[in-house]
Specification:
mainly alpha, two-stranded antiparallel sheet
Length: 565
Amino acid sequence: ADSLASCSSGDALATGTSVRDVLEPTLLIRQLREEVKASILKPDSRNDPNETFEGRVIRILESLGWNKKLRHVLFNMLEETNRQREYTLESRSPRPDTAAAAAMPFRATSDPLPCVEAARKQWENSINEELLAICRERGQPLLRRRQVAADQDGAADSLGHQKDGEEPVKLRFLYDTEDLLETLIQIVPGGHRNTGGAMDILDSPLWGLIQVPLSTPDFRMLRKRYADLNPRNWQLGIDDMPFVHEPDSPRASAARHAMDRFLEGKRRLGTKVVSEGFPLAARLFARTGVPGDLRPSFWRICLGLGMAGKVTDEERREYECLQQHVEQVELVTDSLFIMDVDHLTDSDHYFPFEEALRNVLLAFSRDRTVLQRTHCLTHQPIFGHGGRHGVPKDAAIPLSGVQPFKGLSSYAAPLTFLYDDEAAIFTVLRAMYCKYWCKLNVIRSQPDTLLGLCQVFEQLLQIHDPHLFFHLVQLGTHPLRIAMPWIQHAFVNLLEPAQVLTLWDRIIGFDDLSILPVFAAAIFVYRSPAAISTTSAAHALEVFQDGSELRVAPLLQNFVFPVPF
Protein backbone atom coordinates (compact mmCIF):
# COMPACT_ATOMS: atom_id res chain seq x y z
CA ALA A 1 0.00 0.00 0.00
CA ASP A 2 2.94 2.32 0.58
CA SER A 3 3.66 2.06 -3.14
CA LEU A 4 0.41 3.84 -3.96
CA ALA A 5 1.99 7.26 -3.65
CA SER A 6 4.68 6.30 -6.13
CA CYS A 7 2.43 4.80 -8.79
CA SER A 8 -0.21 7.55 -8.64
CA SER A 9 1.69 10.57 -7.38
CA GLY A 10 0.61 12.62 -10.38
CA ASP A 11 -3.03 12.25 -9.34
CA ALA A 12 -2.66 13.11 -5.66
CA LEU A 13 -5.01 15.65 -4.22
CA ALA A 14 -3.92 19.25 -4.37
CA THR A 15 -4.08 19.49 -0.59
CA GLY A 16 -0.78 17.66 -0.25
CA THR A 17 -2.34 14.63 1.42
CA SER A 18 -0.74 11.39 0.26
CA VAL A 19 -2.80 9.03 -1.87
CA ARG A 20 -2.56 6.35 0.79
CA ASP A 21 -3.96 8.65 3.48
CA VAL A 22 -6.88 9.60 1.24
CA LEU A 23 -7.79 6.01 0.41
CA GLU A 24 -7.00 4.42 3.79
CA PRO A 25 -10.55 4.78 5.22
CA THR A 26 -12.20 3.35 2.10
CA LEU A 27 -13.06 -0.23 1.18
CA LEU A 28 -11.12 0.27 -2.03
CA ILE A 29 -7.76 0.03 -0.24
CA ARG A 30 -8.77 -3.32 1.30
CA GLN A 31 -9.68 -4.72 -2.11
CA LEU A 32 -6.41 -3.43 -3.55
CA ARG A 33 -4.31 -5.06 -0.81
CA GLU A 34 -6.04 -8.40 -1.23
CA GLU A 35 -5.50 -8.46 -4.99
CA VAL A 36 -1.86 -7.37 -4.72
CA LYS A 37 -1.18 -9.93 -1.97
CA ALA A 38 -2.71 -12.73 -4.05
CA SER A 39 -0.62 -11.73 -7.07
CA ILE A 40 2.61 -11.56 -5.03
CA LEU A 41 2.07 -15.06 -3.67
CA LYS A 42 1.72 -16.46 -7.20
CA PRO A 43 4.88 -17.64 -9.00
CA ASP A 44 6.30 -14.82 -11.09
CA SER A 45 7.32 -15.98 -14.57
CA ARG A 46 9.24 -12.76 -15.11
CA ASN A 47 11.71 -13.41 -12.23
CA ASP A 48 13.80 -10.27 -12.81
CA PRO A 49 16.61 -10.23 -10.19
CA ASN A 50 17.10 -6.47 -10.63
CA GLU A 51 13.47 -5.62 -9.93
CA THR A 52 12.81 -4.20 -6.48
CA PHE A 53 9.82 -5.21 -4.39
CA GLU A 54 8.29 -1.76 -4.84
CA GLY A 55 8.77 -1.99 -8.59
CA ARG A 56 7.06 -5.39 -8.65
CA VAL A 57 4.08 -4.01 -6.69
CA ILE A 58 3.74 -1.11 -9.13
CA ARG A 59 3.89 -3.55 -12.07
CA ILE A 60 1.21 -5.72 -10.47
CA LEU A 61 -1.03 -2.70 -9.87
CA GLU A 62 -0.75 -1.72 -13.52
CA SER A 63 -1.40 -5.25 -14.77
CA LEU A 64 -4.55 -5.46 -12.62
CA GLY A 65 -5.81 -2.14 -13.96
CA TRP A 66 -5.50 -0.31 -10.65
CA ASN A 67 -3.76 2.66 -12.22
CA LYS A 68 -7.01 3.49 -14.05
CA LYS A 69 -9.19 2.80 -11.02
CA LEU A 70 -7.07 4.98 -8.73
CA ARG A 71 -6.95 7.80 -11.23
CA HIS A 72 -10.73 7.76 -11.53
CA VAL A 73 -11.38 7.61 -7.78
CA LEU A 74 -8.87 10.33 -6.95
CA PHE A 75 -10.21 12.58 -9.70
CA ASN A 76 -13.71 12.29 -8.25
CA MET A 77 -12.35 13.04 -4.77
CA LEU A 78 -10.63 16.15 -6.10
CA GLU A 79 -13.86 17.23 -7.82
CA GLU A 80 -15.75 16.81 -4.56
CA THR A 81 -13.09 18.78 -2.68
CA ASN A 82 -13.35 21.63 -5.15
CA ARG A 83 -17.15 21.54 -4.99
CA GLN A 84 -17.19 21.86 -1.21
CA ARG A 85 -14.57 24.61 -1.32
CA GLU A 86 -16.31 26.55 -4.10
CA TYR A 87 -18.90 28.75 -2.41
CA THR A 88 -21.93 26.62 -1.84
CA LEU A 89 -22.14 25.18 1.62
CA GLU A 90 -21.15 26.73 4.90
CA SER A 91 -21.98 23.89 7.26
CA ARG A 92 -23.35 20.39 7.06
CA SER A 93 -24.10 20.17 10.77
CA PRO A 94 -27.76 20.56 11.81
CA ARG A 95 -28.92 23.51 13.83
CA PRO A 96 -30.83 22.41 16.92
CA ASP A 97 -32.89 25.59 17.44
CA THR A 98 -36.12 24.12 16.06
CA ALA A 99 -37.29 20.81 14.68
CA ALA A 100 -37.26 22.19 11.15
CA ALA A 101 -33.77 23.62 11.61
CA ALA A 102 -32.51 20.37 13.07
CA ALA A 103 -33.82 18.53 10.02
CA MET A 104 -31.95 20.82 7.66
CA PRO A 105 -28.72 19.10 6.57
CA PHE A 106 -26.95 22.31 5.57
CA ARG A 107 -27.49 25.95 4.78
CA ALA A 108 -26.25 28.19 2.03
CA THR A 109 -23.52 30.69 2.69
CA SER A 110 -24.31 34.38 2.54
CA ASP A 111 -23.31 36.14 -0.64
CA PRO A 112 -20.33 38.49 -0.21
CA LEU A 113 -22.29 41.36 -1.79
CA PRO A 114 -25.08 42.57 0.54
CA CYS A 115 -27.28 43.77 -2.33
CA VAL A 116 -27.13 40.35 -4.00
CA GLU A 117 -27.72 38.55 -0.71
CA ALA A 118 -30.83 40.65 0.00
CA ALA A 119 -32.19 39.98 -3.48
CA ARG A 120 -31.47 36.26 -3.15
CA LYS A 121 -33.34 35.95 0.13
CA GLN A 122 -36.33 37.86 -1.17
CA TRP A 123 -36.38 35.79 -4.36
CA GLU A 124 -36.20 32.42 -2.58
CA ASN A 125 -38.87 33.43 -0.06
CA SER A 126 -41.19 34.59 -2.85
CA ILE A 127 -40.89 31.22 -4.62
CA ASN A 128 -41.80 29.29 -1.48
CA GLU A 129 -44.66 31.65 -0.74
CA GLU A 130 -45.99 31.15 -4.28
CA LEU A 131 -45.90 27.37 -3.84
CA LEU A 132 -47.74 27.57 -0.53
CA ALA A 133 -50.31 29.87 -2.16
CA ILE A 134 -50.91 27.22 -4.83
CA CYS A 135 -51.47 24.66 -2.06
CA ARG A 136 -54.12 26.86 -0.48
CA GLU A 137 -55.84 27.56 -3.80
CA ARG A 138 -56.04 23.87 -4.65
CA GLY A 139 -56.86 22.76 -1.14
CA GLN A 140 -54.01 20.25 -1.35
CA PRO A 141 -51.19 19.58 1.11
CA LEU A 142 -47.57 19.61 0.02
CA LEU A 143 -47.58 15.83 -0.02
CA ARG A 144 -50.16 13.08 0.26
CA ARG A 145 -50.63 9.46 -0.70
CA ARG A 146 -51.19 9.08 -4.41
CA GLN A 147 -54.88 9.06 -5.27
CA VAL A 148 -55.59 5.98 -7.38
CA ALA A 149 -58.44 6.36 -9.88
CA ALA A 150 -61.43 4.10 -9.34
CA ASP A 151 -62.13 3.84 -13.04
CA GLN A 152 -60.23 4.47 -16.25
CA ASP A 153 -62.62 6.78 -18.09
CA GLY A 154 -63.96 9.63 -15.98
CA ALA A 155 -61.59 9.65 -13.04
CA ALA A 156 -58.47 11.70 -12.54
CA ASP A 157 -55.27 9.97 -13.43
CA SER A 158 -52.54 9.43 -10.87
CA LEU A 159 -50.60 12.53 -11.90
CA GLY A 160 -53.16 15.19 -11.27
CA HIS A 161 -55.32 15.48 -14.39
CA GLN A 162 -58.90 16.50 -13.76
CA LYS A 163 -61.97 14.31 -13.57
CA ASP A 164 -64.86 14.91 -15.94
CA GLY A 165 -67.21 17.54 -14.58
CA GLU A 166 -64.66 19.04 -12.22
CA GLU A 167 -63.68 22.69 -12.36
CA PRO A 168 -60.25 22.78 -14.03
CA VAL A 169 -57.52 24.04 -11.76
CA LYS A 170 -55.58 26.87 -13.32
CA LEU A 171 -51.91 26.02 -13.03
CA ARG A 172 -49.12 28.54 -13.26
CA PHE A 173 -45.36 28.38 -13.13
CA LEU A 174 -43.70 29.44 -9.91
CA TYR A 175 -41.53 31.71 -12.05
CA ASP A 176 -40.15 32.05 -15.55
CA THR A 177 -37.16 33.70 -17.19
CA GLU A 178 -38.79 37.14 -17.25
CA ASP A 179 -39.45 37.01 -13.49
CA LEU A 180 -35.85 36.07 -12.81
CA LEU A 181 -34.49 38.77 -15.12
CA GLU A 182 -36.60 41.46 -13.50
CA THR A 183 -35.16 40.45 -10.14
CA LEU A 184 -31.59 40.59 -11.46
CA ILE A 185 -31.91 44.04 -13.00
CA GLN A 186 -33.36 45.44 -9.76
CA ILE A 187 -30.11 44.64 -7.92
CA VAL A 188 -28.22 47.89 -7.46
CA PRO A 189 -25.18 48.16 -5.18
CA GLY A 190 -26.14 50.69 -2.55
CA GLY A 191 -23.40 53.21 -1.85
CA HIS A 192 -20.94 51.40 -4.11
CA ARG A 193 -17.79 53.36 -4.79
CA ASN A 194 -15.05 52.51 -7.19
CA THR A 195 -11.87 52.31 -5.10
CA GLY A 196 -9.61 51.10 -7.88
CA GLY A 197 -8.99 54.44 -9.50
CA ALA A 198 -10.52 55.60 -12.77
CA MET A 199 -12.89 52.99 -14.23
CA ASP A 200 -12.24 52.00 -17.83
CA ILE A 201 -15.28 52.66 -19.98
CA LEU A 202 -15.14 49.08 -21.27
CA ASP A 203 -15.42 47.81 -17.70
CA SER A 204 -18.43 49.97 -16.84
CA PRO A 205 -22.03 48.80 -17.30
CA LEU A 206 -22.63 51.42 -20.04
CA TRP A 207 -26.12 50.58 -21.31
CA GLY A 208 -26.27 47.18 -19.61
CA LEU A 209 -29.10 46.06 -17.37
CA ILE A 210 -26.78 44.33 -14.88
CA GLN A 211 -25.47 47.08 -12.62
CA VAL A 212 -23.61 45.02 -10.02
CA PRO A 213 -19.78 45.25 -10.31
CA LEU A 214 -18.58 41.66 -10.64
CA SER A 215 -15.21 40.03 -11.27
CA THR A 216 -16.12 38.62 -14.66
CA PRO A 217 -13.52 37.49 -17.22
CA ASP A 218 -12.65 39.93 -19.99
CA PHE A 219 -12.29 38.98 -23.64
CA ARG A 220 -8.54 38.46 -23.38
CA MET A 221 -9.05 35.96 -20.57
CA LEU A 222 -11.79 34.18 -22.53
CA ARG A 223 -9.56 33.81 -25.59
CA LYS A 224 -6.91 32.22 -23.42
CA ARG A 225 -9.48 29.97 -21.71
CA TYR A 226 -10.88 28.79 -25.06
CA ALA A 227 -7.56 28.39 -26.85
CA ASP A 228 -8.68 25.00 -28.16
CA LEU A 229 -11.22 26.80 -30.39
CA ASN A 230 -8.34 28.32 -32.36
CA PRO A 231 -8.63 27.62 -36.13
CA ARG A 232 -5.28 25.84 -35.91
CA ASN A 233 -7.13 23.01 -34.14
CA TRP A 234 -9.45 20.83 -36.20
CA GLN A 235 -13.01 20.96 -34.89
CA LEU A 236 -16.01 18.67 -35.20
CA GLY A 237 -18.80 20.87 -36.48
CA ILE A 238 -16.43 22.73 -38.83
CA ASP A 239 -13.74 20.56 -40.39
CA ASP A 240 -16.05 17.58 -40.86
CA MET A 241 -18.26 19.70 -43.13
CA PRO A 242 -16.00 21.32 -45.75
CA PHE A 243 -17.55 24.02 -47.88
CA VAL A 244 -16.28 23.64 -51.43
CA HIS A 245 -17.60 25.66 -54.37
CA GLU A 246 -16.30 23.21 -57.00
CA PRO A 247 -16.95 19.66 -55.74
CA ASP A 248 -15.18 17.98 -58.68
CA SER A 249 -11.96 19.95 -58.45
CA PRO A 250 -8.68 18.41 -57.20
CA ARG A 251 -8.79 20.82 -54.27
CA ALA A 252 -12.20 19.44 -53.25
CA SER A 253 -10.91 15.87 -53.45
CA ALA A 254 -7.94 16.75 -51.22
CA ALA A 255 -10.28 18.43 -48.73
CA ARG A 256 -12.47 15.33 -48.56
CA HIS A 257 -9.44 13.09 -47.98
CA ALA A 258 -8.20 15.41 -45.22
CA MET A 259 -11.65 15.39 -43.64
CA ASP A 260 -11.82 11.58 -43.76
CA ARG A 261 -8.41 11.31 -42.10
CA PHE A 262 -9.45 13.78 -39.43
CA LEU A 263 -12.67 11.90 -38.65
CA GLU A 264 -10.90 8.54 -38.60
CA GLY A 265 -8.20 9.84 -36.26
CA LYS A 266 -10.73 11.60 -34.04
CA ARG A 267 -12.81 8.44 -33.68
CA ARG A 268 -9.76 6.27 -33.06
CA LEU A 269 -8.49 8.60 -30.34
CA GLY A 270 -11.99 8.91 -28.87
CA THR A 271 -12.34 5.14 -28.63
CA LYS A 272 -9.02 4.97 -26.77
CA VAL A 273 -10.10 7.73 -24.37
CA VAL A 274 -13.35 5.86 -23.65
CA SER A 275 -11.42 2.66 -22.94
CA GLU A 276 -9.19 4.54 -20.49
CA GLY A 277 -12.21 6.12 -18.77
CA PHE A 278 -10.29 9.05 -17.26
CA PRO A 279 -12.52 12.16 -16.93
CA LEU A 280 -9.78 14.76 -17.44
CA ALA A 281 -8.62 13.18 -20.71
CA ALA A 282 -12.24 12.90 -21.87
CA ARG A 283 -12.85 16.60 -21.17
CA LEU A 284 -9.76 17.65 -23.09
CA PHE A 285 -10.95 15.57 -26.04
CA ALA A 286 -14.48 17.04 -25.90
CA ARG A 287 -13.22 20.61 -26.33
CA THR A 288 -13.00 20.10 -30.08
CA GLY A 289 -16.20 18.06 -30.30
CA VAL A 290 -17.22 14.44 -29.74
CA PRO A 291 -18.31 11.98 -32.45
CA GLY A 292 -22.02 11.27 -32.11
CA ASP A 293 -21.64 7.52 -31.54
CA LEU A 294 -19.15 8.10 -28.70
CA ARG A 295 -20.96 11.01 -27.05
CA PRO A 296 -23.17 8.98 -24.63
CA SER A 297 -20.14 7.26 -23.10
CA PHE A 298 -18.02 10.41 -23.22
CA TRP A 299 -20.46 12.52 -21.26
CA ARG A 300 -20.81 9.93 -18.52
CA ILE A 301 -17.03 9.70 -18.21
CA CYS A 302 -16.59 13.48 -18.20
CA LEU A 303 -19.20 13.80 -15.46
CA GLY A 304 -17.48 11.18 -13.30
CA LEU A 305 -20.23 8.59 -13.64
CA GLY A 306 -17.94 5.63 -14.18
CA MET A 307 -15.20 4.35 -16.43
CA ALA A 308 -17.46 2.02 -18.40
CA GLY A 309 -19.55 4.86 -19.81
CA LYS A 310 -22.77 2.87 -19.30
CA VAL A 311 -25.52 3.04 -16.72
CA THR A 312 -24.80 0.73 -13.79
CA ASP A 313 -27.13 -1.71 -12.06
CA GLU A 314 -26.98 0.44 -8.94
CA GLU A 315 -28.11 3.52 -10.88
CA ARG A 316 -30.92 1.54 -12.46
CA ARG A 317 -32.13 0.31 -9.06
CA GLU A 318 -31.96 3.84 -7.69
CA TYR A 319 -34.12 5.14 -10.54
CA GLU A 320 -36.65 2.35 -10.04
CA CYS A 321 -36.94 3.21 -6.33
CA LEU A 322 -37.61 6.86 -7.21
CA GLN A 323 -40.26 5.78 -9.69
CA GLN A 324 -41.96 3.71 -7.00
CA HIS A 325 -42.02 6.77 -4.77
CA VAL A 326 -43.70 8.75 -7.56
CA GLU A 327 -46.38 6.06 -7.85
CA GLN A 328 -47.02 5.98 -4.11
CA VAL A 329 -46.71 9.61 -2.97
CA GLU A 330 -48.09 12.71 -4.66
CA LEU A 331 -46.38 16.08 -4.23
CA VAL A 332 -48.15 19.33 -4.99
CA THR A 333 -45.27 20.12 -7.33
CA ASP A 334 -45.93 17.08 -9.56
CA SER A 335 -48.47 18.87 -11.74
CA LEU A 336 -46.08 21.81 -12.13
CA PHE A 337 -43.25 19.57 -13.32
CA ILE A 338 -45.66 17.92 -15.76
CA MET A 339 -46.89 21.29 -17.01
CA ASP A 340 -43.31 22.25 -17.83
CA VAL A 341 -42.79 19.02 -19.77
CA ASP A 342 -46.06 19.57 -21.65
CA HIS A 343 -44.94 23.07 -22.57
CA LEU A 344 -41.55 21.84 -23.82
CA THR A 345 -42.88 18.88 -25.80
CA ASP A 346 -45.19 21.13 -27.78
CA SER A 347 -42.43 21.16 -30.38
CA ASP A 348 -41.35 19.11 -33.38
CA HIS A 349 -38.13 18.02 -31.69
CA TYR A 350 -39.18 16.69 -28.31
CA PHE A 351 -42.83 15.61 -28.49
CA PRO A 352 -41.94 11.89 -29.02
CA PHE A 353 -40.19 11.89 -25.63
CA GLU A 354 -43.00 13.34 -23.53
CA GLU A 355 -43.56 10.25 -21.38
CA ALA A 356 -39.86 9.69 -20.77
CA LEU A 357 -39.35 13.34 -19.80
CA ARG A 358 -42.29 13.21 -17.39
CA ASN A 359 -40.93 10.10 -15.70
CA VAL A 360 -37.41 11.51 -15.45
CA LEU A 361 -38.47 14.92 -14.09
CA LEU A 362 -40.76 13.39 -11.46
CA ALA A 363 -38.01 11.00 -10.39
CA PHE A 364 -35.58 13.93 -10.23
CA SER A 365 -37.96 15.77 -7.90
CA ARG A 366 -37.80 12.77 -5.50
CA ASP A 367 -34.01 12.48 -5.38
CA ARG A 368 -32.76 13.65 -1.98
CA THR A 369 -29.12 13.32 -3.05
CA VAL A 370 -29.48 16.42 -5.25
CA LEU A 371 -29.24 18.53 -2.09
CA GLN A 372 -25.88 16.97 -1.25
CA ARG A 373 -24.50 16.85 -4.80
CA THR A 374 -25.45 20.30 -6.09
CA HIS A 375 -22.77 22.96 -6.40
CA CYS A 376 -25.21 25.62 -5.25
CA LEU A 377 -28.72 25.53 -3.85
CA THR A 378 -31.16 26.58 -6.54
CA HIS A 379 -33.93 27.31 -4.05
CA GLN A 380 -34.37 27.47 -0.30
CA PRO A 381 -35.67 24.00 0.65
CA ILE A 382 -39.02 23.73 2.44
CA PHE A 383 -38.59 21.50 5.48
CA GLY A 384 -40.90 20.37 8.24
CA HIS A 385 -43.55 18.57 6.20
CA GLY A 386 -42.03 15.08 6.08
CA GLY A 387 -42.56 12.15 8.38
CA ARG A 388 -45.64 10.88 6.52
CA HIS A 389 -46.38 8.43 3.71
CA GLY A 390 -42.85 7.08 3.73
CA VAL A 391 -41.24 10.50 3.36
CA PRO A 392 -38.41 10.99 5.88
CA LYS A 393 -39.03 13.60 8.55
CA ASP A 394 -35.97 15.62 7.56
CA ALA A 395 -36.82 15.64 3.83
CA ALA A 396 -37.46 18.78 1.81
CA ILE A 397 -40.49 19.35 -0.43
CA PRO A 398 -39.84 18.50 -3.18
CA LEU A 399 -37.25 16.05 -1.96
CA SER A 400 -34.62 17.28 -4.42
CA GLY A 401 -34.92 20.83 -3.09
CA VAL A 402 -35.44 22.09 -6.67
CA GLN A 403 -38.77 23.84 -7.14
CA PRO A 404 -40.49 23.46 -10.53
CA PHE A 405 -39.94 26.43 -12.82
CA LYS A 406 -40.58 27.07 -16.48
CA GLY A 407 -37.76 25.54 -18.51
CA LEU A 408 -36.43 22.95 -16.05
CA SER A 409 -37.27 20.15 -18.47
CA SER A 410 -35.04 21.82 -21.09
CA TYR A 411 -32.02 20.37 -19.32
CA ALA A 412 -33.34 16.82 -19.81
CA ALA A 413 -34.74 17.12 -23.34
CA PRO A 414 -31.48 16.89 -25.40
CA LEU A 415 -30.44 13.80 -23.43
CA THR A 416 -33.32 11.88 -25.00
CA PHE A 417 -31.34 11.94 -28.26
CA LEU A 418 -28.39 10.25 -26.55
CA TYR A 419 -29.95 7.63 -24.30
CA ASP A 420 -32.95 5.36 -24.85
CA ASP A 421 -32.87 4.30 -21.20
CA GLU A 422 -34.70 6.53 -18.72
CA ALA A 423 -32.26 5.58 -15.96
CA ALA A 424 -29.37 6.83 -18.09
CA ILE A 425 -31.19 10.08 -18.90
CA PHE A 426 -31.93 10.62 -15.21
CA THR A 427 -28.37 9.96 -14.06
CA VAL A 428 -26.78 12.32 -16.59
CA LEU A 429 -29.45 14.98 -15.96
CA ARG A 430 -28.75 14.89 -12.23
CA ALA A 431 -25.00 15.11 -12.74
CA MET A 432 -25.26 18.02 -15.19
CA TYR A 433 -27.83 19.88 -13.12
CA CYS A 434 -25.80 19.58 -9.92
CA LYS A 435 -22.59 20.64 -11.66
CA TYR A 436 -23.76 23.18 -14.24
CA TRP A 437 -27.46 23.99 -14.60
CA CYS A 438 -28.03 24.84 -10.93
CA LYS A 439 -25.78 27.87 -11.47
CA LEU A 440 -28.11 29.17 -14.19
CA ASN A 441 -31.01 29.49 -11.76
CA VAL A 442 -29.55 31.18 -8.69
CA ILE A 443 -28.97 34.77 -7.65
CA ARG A 444 -25.32 34.87 -6.68
CA SER A 445 -22.39 37.16 -7.39
CA GLN A 446 -19.96 34.40 -8.38
CA PRO A 447 -18.84 34.96 -12.00
CA ASP A 448 -19.93 31.50 -13.19
CA THR A 449 -23.53 31.96 -12.05
CA LEU A 450 -26.39 33.57 -13.96
CA LEU A 451 -25.76 37.13 -12.83
CA GLY A 452 -22.11 37.05 -13.88
CA LEU A 453 -22.87 35.29 -17.16
CA CYS A 454 -25.41 37.95 -18.07
CA GLN A 455 -22.86 40.65 -17.39
CA VAL A 456 -20.27 38.84 -19.53
CA PHE A 457 -22.76 38.82 -22.42
CA GLU A 458 -23.50 42.54 -22.09
CA GLN A 459 -19.83 43.47 -21.90
CA LEU A 460 -18.87 41.32 -24.89
CA LEU A 461 -21.61 42.71 -27.09
CA GLN A 462 -20.89 46.31 -26.11
CA ILE A 463 -17.22 45.84 -26.97
CA HIS A 464 -17.71 43.93 -30.23
CA ASP A 465 -20.77 45.70 -31.64
CA PRO A 466 -21.69 48.83 -29.63
CA HIS A 467 -23.69 50.16 -32.60
CA LEU A 468 -26.03 47.16 -32.52
CA PHE A 469 -26.30 47.28 -28.73
CA PHE A 470 -27.29 50.94 -28.70
CA HIS A 471 -29.65 50.48 -31.66
CA LEU A 472 -31.58 47.72 -29.86
CA VAL A 473 -31.72 49.73 -26.64
CA GLN A 474 -33.16 52.68 -28.53
CA LEU A 475 -35.79 50.43 -30.11
CA GLY A 476 -36.84 49.33 -26.61
CA THR A 477 -35.58 45.75 -27.06
CA HIS A 478 -32.68 45.31 -24.72
CA PRO A 479 -30.22 42.62 -25.91
CA LEU A 480 -30.21 40.85 -22.53
CA ARG A 481 -33.99 40.38 -22.67
CA ILE A 482 -33.44 38.41 -25.88
CA ALA A 483 -30.36 36.48 -24.73
CA MET A 484 -31.39 35.68 -21.15
CA PRO A 485 -33.68 32.72 -22.09
CA TRP A 486 -30.91 31.33 -24.29
CA ILE A 487 -28.34 31.50 -21.50
CA GLN A 488 -30.61 30.25 -18.72
CA HIS A 489 -31.81 27.22 -20.72
CA ALA A 490 -28.45 26.50 -22.39
CA PHE A 491 -29.89 27.29 -25.85
CA VAL A 492 -32.31 24.35 -25.87
CA ASN A 493 -35.09 26.81 -26.74
CA LEU A 494 -33.26 28.18 -29.80
CA LEU A 495 -31.01 25.63 -31.48
CA GLU A 496 -31.63 22.39 -33.29
CA PRO A 497 -30.98 19.39 -30.99
CA ALA A 498 -27.79 18.40 -32.84
CA GLN A 499 -26.37 21.88 -32.30
CA VAL A 500 -27.38 21.85 -28.64
CA LEU A 501 -25.34 18.67 -28.19
CA THR A 502 -22.41 20.28 -30.01
CA LEU A 503 -22.56 23.27 -27.65
CA TRP A 504 -22.85 21.05 -24.57
CA ASP A 505 -19.75 19.13 -25.75
CA ARG A 506 -17.81 22.35 -25.27
CA ILE A 507 -19.44 23.16 -21.92
CA ILE A 508 -18.43 19.76 -20.58
CA GLY A 509 -15.03 19.85 -22.27
CA PHE A 510 -14.03 23.27 -20.95
CA ASP A 511 -15.95 22.61 -17.72
CA ASP A 512 -17.14 26.20 -17.94
CA LEU A 513 -20.46 27.98 -18.44
CA SER A 514 -18.97 31.23 -19.77
CA ILE A 515 -19.20 29.73 -23.23
CA LEU A 516 -22.96 30.40 -23.07
CA PRO A 517 -22.72 34.23 -23.04
CA VAL A 518 -19.87 34.03 -25.54
CA PHE A 519 -22.08 32.12 -27.95
CA ALA A 520 -24.99 34.48 -27.31
CA ALA A 521 -22.80 37.46 -28.20
CA ALA A 522 -21.57 35.59 -31.29
CA ILE A 523 -25.18 35.20 -32.49
CA PHE A 524 -25.84 38.91 -32.05
CA VAL A 525 -22.75 39.86 -34.01
CA TYR A 526 -23.68 37.35 -36.72
CA ARG A 527 -27.22 38.73 -36.96
CA SER A 528 -26.03 42.33 -36.72
CA PRO A 529 -26.45 43.30 -40.41
CA ALA A 530 -30.11 42.25 -40.35
CA ALA A 531 -30.84 43.59 -36.86
CA ILE A 532 -29.25 46.99 -37.45
CA SER A 533 -31.70 47.69 -40.28
CA THR A 534 -34.80 47.08 -38.15
CA THR A 535 -37.01 50.01 -37.22
CA SER A 536 -39.25 48.44 -34.56
CA ALA A 537 -38.89 46.25 -31.51
CA ALA A 538 -41.12 43.54 -33.01
CA HIS A 539 -39.03 43.37 -36.17
CA ALA A 540 -35.81 43.19 -34.14
CA LEU A 541 -37.18 40.28 -32.11
CA GLU A 542 -38.02 38.38 -35.28
CA VAL A 543 -34.40 38.57 -36.41
CA PHE A 544 -33.27 36.59 -33.35
CA GLN A 545 -36.15 34.13 -32.98
CA ASP A 546 -35.12 31.58 -35.60
CA GLY A 547 -32.08 29.51 -34.66
CA SER A 548 -32.58 26.63 -37.09
CA GLU A 549 -29.72 27.77 -39.34
CA LEU A 550 -27.24 28.56 -36.56
CA ARG A 551 -24.11 26.41 -36.30
CA VAL A 552 -22.33 26.41 -32.96
CA ALA A 553 -18.71 25.62 -33.78
CA PRO A 554 -18.19 28.15 -36.63
CA LEU A 555 -19.88 30.96 -34.71
CA LEU A 556 -17.85 30.32 -31.56
CA GLN A 557 -14.58 30.04 -33.42
CA ASN A 558 -15.12 33.14 -35.55
CA PHE A 559 -16.14 35.20 -32.52
CA VAL A 560 -13.30 34.17 -30.22
CA PHE A 561 -10.68 34.01 -33.02
CA PRO A 562 -12.00 36.23 -35.83
CA VAL A 563 -10.38 35.80 -39.22
CA PRO A 564 -9.29 39.19 -40.66
CA PHE A 565 -10.55 40.06 -44.11
